[in-house]
Each structure stands twice: as structure tokens, then as C-alpha cells.
Amino acid sequence: MPEQPHEPEGAIAGTGMGATMDLGASEAATLERTPAGPRGTGPAGKPRSLWSDAWRDLRRNPVFLLSALVIVFLVLISLWPSAIASGSPLQCDLARAQDGAGPGAPFGYDGQGCNVYTRTVYGARASVTVGVLATLGVAVTGSVLGALAGYFGGVWDSVLSRITDIFFAIPVLLGGLVLLSVVTSNTVWPVIGFMVLLGWPQVSRIARGSVITVKQNDYVQAARALGASDSRILLRHIAPNAVAPVIVVSTIALGTYIALEATLSYLGVGLKPPSVSWGIDISAASPYVRNAPHALLWPSGALAVTVLAFIMLGDAVRDALDPKLR
Amino acid sequence: MARYVARRLLQMIPVFIGSTLLIFLMVNVMGDPIAGLCGERACDLATAAQLKREFGLDKPLWQQYATYMGNVFTGDFGTAFNGQKVTELMGSAFPVTIRLTIVAILFEIVIGVTLGVVTGLRRGRPVDTGVLLGTLVVISVPTFVTGLLLQLLLGIKWQWISPSVRYGGFDELIVPGLVLASVSLAYVTRLTRTSIAENKRSDYVRTAVAKGLPRHRVVVRHLLRNSLIPVVTFIGADIGALMGGAIVTERIFNIRGVGFQLYQGILRQNTQTVVGFVTVLVLVFLVANLLVDLLYAVLDPRIRYA
């Protein structure tokens, strides 16, 4: 079998997470082939690293600035929702059910007479928490396992590759429904745990490929010749040069995890009432959609803008980190 | 070629066993399948023990898995706890979902590839920027939001379509298919665009232009054919994801397909239904990926399978 150009590893990564999870995976794959491009030189003739170069690009990118602004706003309101919304999201008055906009309730009331504005503001917390923590978990687990497999190769590597194949074959929503339908705890932790469990193979695949490319570089050979230990080579020499694709994939995945949390909550297995989440609100509003479409539209809009902001941020980061586009 | 296929089929076995075992464990370890059988109240002990014996649930888990897989290969997917054969459920559910998936794939190919070619050839122009932004927006709006919005607009406000599907023919599945395809459609557009823009500068395109071929022939026969490889990979892998991901779309439009049966099965902890359907979905995923790999050789004459 001399020629085998398209091993499963070469196929698009992330199919297991549904089509929703691999924006940028293919782009990141081109990125990992050229991990650190030729170093640019600044105006003073000082060599710049990939990172300062990327940061310079990002600061001038309007897409990045806009999405960063939205994200900062989202983080602030998920930390202090009471700053812009009065009252409690759980305080509902059935007499006002399905009413339109009124004083103190610019978005109107939902089918249970809850203030849609307050609930939409408070709903940001669940999304941001799940998105950030799930991404951190997936990025750390995936890159550690992937880097070890890529660096040491051998049996562990083939075992890991087969395990990722297995995880990719399971449709993500199905896994979520099966695993989360029996969970009774009504916190964000089971949802986050599930995302880490099914999300790490995507990152580990990228990290593995990236480490394999970087470890063939001369400076890694040089470090080894100088007697550096495996852990030192991995942490000091390989990691900084191999981490860019992982960052790109993770940033974009953050948006999709937020969408996934809302989808799971919509299906009734993610967060459950009395938790406040956009997915729950959208699900609750859909039976009343004829009479009170506003109860559906506002949380949907908030969800879409949030996911869009994170995906655009990831897109901008990828453009900045990909030397091929310079 | 035959050796390659044989090797790939052998490679599929551990993945198939692994993923079905994983789903089997998830379904069995985490929920008590008997709990859903006695209605809202708990079963009394004697009934529970008898039911467990009847369904073979008193045996160790590995033995249950082995028995189950043995039966599956003789075409027996077991009986759901309400007495209906799982194969019967499949017979009614899969045709609808397959139709839905076909509609979705057609949307991906026709709209996605066309937009990708148009933007890839005009990289950096207003059309390109506009479509690129559009794809980002489509990717950002989760499927269930797109579905509910289209249902609200087309089904309820303007009454162009019926908001729920009754018999599941192709005509009723156009809008649900578009909803199911929406996110993948955006990916297909982006992938085609990147691929076209990359290959536009390749030698064989320059040769084709230099030979004096008309532009559409260069684009369709030379540029597109080679650029489609990543797109085909994506669509092939997407078939499995679409069929499994139809849960949301089928719920919104009330389609009685695979997703609907799975959702019911999971909520009622009907292990036989869930494991059976997932087993078939995993098989579909693996076979689709194999077919895609074989398609490469058709698309790119430089690829040969020894």
C-alpha cells in the first residue's frame, strides 16, 4: 500500500460533533503544516514573533474589535445581570402572560408571564459559563492527549487514533440525549462534562498533527542533542510552536458549544427550569408562537448574536495566526 | 483497489464494535430500562425480576452485548418494550429520514457548491465578502432557531407550507430539508471557496487556459473537479451527522423519522430502540466515509489505490 492519500485522519475532523463543530478545522489543518511562518520585522528592525504579529493584525481588524466588544459586554452582563435588568427572572405573573412590551419589560412577557427582557439578560450567564468552561476542558484534555500521542507515537498513538475514530462515529446530539437524559442534577456541570467527553477527540487530532509537524524541526533535534528531557522539549520547544491551530479550533468551537448547550436545553436534557437559559426559553415559547412571537424572537436573537460573536472572533484569530494569508 | 477496500472494511470493524459498545454501555449503565415500563409508578419487585429475565437483563452486560450483536447480524434488532419489533419501527422511520437527508444533501450540493465557486473565483470582491458574512450568520444561528423561525414565517405568518409534516413526502420535506442542511450548507460554501481559490493558481488550470479552452469548461472540468475533494469528504461525513442530527428538525416539523423515534426511545429509556437505531446510524456513517474515499480516485486522476 504505497499510496494512501486519504486516511481517516486526513478526512475532515470533527464530524462526530455533528457538522456544527468543525468550522476552521480544515483551515487549521493547512495552518498546522506551516506552524511558524517567517518572522516579520517591525519598523525598528526588531524581529517580531508570530504572536505579536498576530496581535498587531487583530488590533486593526474591525471584525475582531466588534466581536470582542460584544463578548466583553456578554461577560459583564453574565457577571452582573442585575446591573441592567431589574427584578428576578423567576418572578412571573400569569395575569400578564403573552403580553406585549410594557413599562419595565421592553421585550414583553412570555407564556408564563415572565419578563422576557430580564430572562434574556439572565440567560447569558448559562451560555457564557458553559461555553468558556467546556472550551477550556476540551482544549486542555484534547491537547495533552494529542500532544503525548503525537510526540511519543507508537502503540499509544494508534490506540488514541482508534479511540477518536470511535468517538467521531457517534452523532453528538444522540450522545447528549442518551447521557444527559438520566442526569437529575440541574447544574451546568453535567452539560460541560458531556461536551468535554465528546469534544476532546477533535482537539486531540489537531494537536497530534501539529506536534508531529513541529517535532521534525531542527531546533527540536538540537534541543534533543543538547540532552534536554522529553518534558522540557515538549513544553519549551514544541508547545509554543504547535499551539496555534489548537487555539484557532478552540475559539471557534466556543461558539458552537454555546449553540449546543441551547440545543440540549431546547430538547429538555441540558439545563432544566428553574435554571435560566436561552434554550429553555425558546423551547417554552414555541407553543405560544402564534400569539407571542416576541418571547421566541428575543432569546433566539440573543443566542444568535452570542454565537456569531464567538465564531467571528475565532475567524479573526485564525486569519491573524495563519501565515499563509499574510 | 480490492485490497484497499478489504483493508478499509477490516479497519471499520473495531470502530463499529467500539462505538456500538460505547452507546450500549451509555444506555444500559445509566438508566434502568425497567423503570419506564410500569407507567409513572415503580414496578413491584416480582414483576421487575420477571421482566428482567424476559429481556435477558439479569445477565452480565458483556453477555447482553454479545447476544445483541449476534442477533443484529441475523437481522433481528429485538423488540421494543411495548412489543413492537424494532425492525418495524425502522421500516417506518428510515424512509422518511432518508428522504429528508437527500433533500438536505441536494441543497448542500446545489446551493453550497454554486456559491462556493462563485465566491472562490471572485475572492475579495463584494460578492465574496457578502456571501462569507452570510455563511457566518447561518453557522451562528442554531438549527432549532432557524427551524422555528422558518416555521413561524412560512408556516404560520404567510402560510406557504404546512407547519407540521403529515405523510413525509418529498414536497413536504423541502423546508425541513433546507433547515437541516443550513449549517452544513454554509460549511460547503466556505470549503468550496477556499479550495477553488487555492487551485485557481495551479499548473493544470494555467495549462487549460493556455490551451484556449472556454472559461466554463476550465472551471467545470478542470478546476471544480479537483477542488471538490475536500467538499466530497465533508458531505460524505455529513450524511451520518445529518441523519443523527435530524432529531431537532424532526421535532420542530413533527416528522416521524429516525430522530423522532430515537427521541421517544431515549425519553422512555427504550434501550432496544435506541441501540438498534444508533447501530444502523454508525454503519451508515462508516459506509459513507468508505464510499467517499473511493470517490477520490474518480475525482482526482492522480490518486490511485494500489
Summarize the model shown.
Chain B: It is found in: Cell membrane. The complex is a heterodimer of chains A (326) and B (306). Chain A is an all-alpha fold.
Describe this protein's structure.
- The complex is a heterodimer of chains A (326) and B (306).
- Chain A has 326 residues and is mainly α.
- Chain A has one domain (50-325): Orthogonal Bundle (MetI-like fold), CATH 1.10.3720.
- Chain A has helices spanning 25-33, 50-59, 62-79, 116-152, 154-168, 172-180, 189-214, 218-225, 230-267, 278-285, 293-321.
- Chain A is elongated.
- Mean pLDDT of chain A is 78; it is low at 1-42.
- Chain B is mainly α and 306 residues long.
- Chain B has two domains: 2-72, no CATH class; 87-299, Orthogonal Bundle (MetI-like fold), CATH 1.10.3720.10.
- Chain B has helices at residues 2-30, 45-54, 61-72, 86-121, 126-140, 143-157, 174-199, 203-210, 215-252, 258-267, 271-299.
- Chain B is globular.
- Chain B starts with a helix and ends in a 7-residue tail after the last helix.
- The relative contact order of chain B is 0.13.
- The mean pLDDT of chain B is 82.
- Classes of the chains: A mainly alpha (326), B mainly alpha (306).
- The interface between A and B is large, with 55 and 69 residues.
